[in-house]
Amino acid sequence: MIRACDEADFDTILAVVNEAAEAYRGVIPPDRWREPYMTADYLRSEIEAGVRFFCVEDQGEVLGVMGIQDVRDVTLVRHAYVRTTAQRRGAGGRLLAHLCDLTERPLLMGTWADATWAVSFYEKYGFKRVGRLETARLLRTYWDIPERQVQTSVVLGDARAWRRVVREVS
Fold first, then answer.
1. Around Cβ 64, how many Cβ atoms within 10 Å?
2. Which are the contacts of 78, defined by CB distance < 8 A and separation ≥ 6?
3. Measured between alpha carbons, how far is residue 93 from residues 64, 97, 163 in Å?
């Protein structure tokens, strides 16, 4: 079952994110790793900034969480994490498909460049990676992240994004 998260899910969202984010340890630049990876204050600030979280459940257990955020003329996929015990079983794909269906806007998502498994996941579901210069432009336009994160991230877009907001020719 997929459903919108509410305030009662706050601690669960935080737990799923921090458990699944362990995969980034030693992969992303050490200066970008934090312990915990996501703090409660940061999660609160993301929700206050308009990130709407959804979860996929099985028999009452939350298997994964994913957020979307409308920014300007696009929707960003934000904070997509699946519990390690549920990975590679379709939970993330079902959740992503649900979020894609919630908007008519172009969808963009950003992730760490060295998180090849994350990039492959989005590509499997039809997102296409944009080039380096276009990645920097999109990250600076639609995200509020430090320059170091711009330098170490990639952006992928769905077909709507490639038609409307991605400027590079593939």
1. 27
2. 46, 51, 66, 67, 68, 69, 109
3. 10, 6, 23
Burial of 149 per CB tally in 10 Å (0-12, 13-18, 19+): middle
* pLDDT, tens only, 29-57: 999 999 999 999 999 999 999 999 999 99
Which residue is associated with the tokens 């994110």?
A: 17
**Which phi and psi angles does 46 have, rounded to 5°?**
-65, -45
Sheet holding 52-58, edge to edge: 2-4, 52-58, 61-71, 74-82, 107-112, 153-157, 128-129
Structure tokens at 117: 């498994």
pLDDT at 68 over 70: yes
Residue of 87, 91, 122 whose CA lies nearest to 107: 122
| Phi, psi (deg, nearest 5) at residue 70 | -80, 125
Please name the helix (run of DSSP H) or strand (run of DSSP E) that holds residue 70, with its range, or none: strand 61-71
